[in-house]
Amino acid sequence: QLQLVESGGGLVQAGGSLRLSCAASGDTFSPYALGWFRQTPGKERELVAAISWIGGGTYDADSVKGRFTISRDSAKNTLYLQMNSLEPKNTAEYSCAASFHMCSSYVYYDRDHYPLWGQGRQVTDSS
Q1: pLDDT tens digits, 1-40
Q2: Which three-class secondary structure state does DSSP give residue 103?
């Protein structure tokens, strides 16, 4: 059974960088579109970035455009979120998610398209 195992995150000063990883366990997620979401207390989970099944299509939220990069390594069955120039407002719990749209060139914006989620990793501004 496919599970998503996240790593990375932690404390970071404003302007710093972090990379989140999300590895598939139990099966492959290579055929699926994937995404990174974040949530802060009292707010709904929001899409940060998304990527299609072979990475040909990507989406970055306006708030992170030019600073965050989503990528995937199919050989390693791993999804990444490189976060640069972090800002205090980026403090949140970040979660990776897998859709079950197979071999789709589309990216998916709505969290309802993502039935499978990682456990979440906290990213906190330490400034």
Answers
A1: 999 999 999 999 999 999 999 999 999 988 899 999 999 9
A2: coil
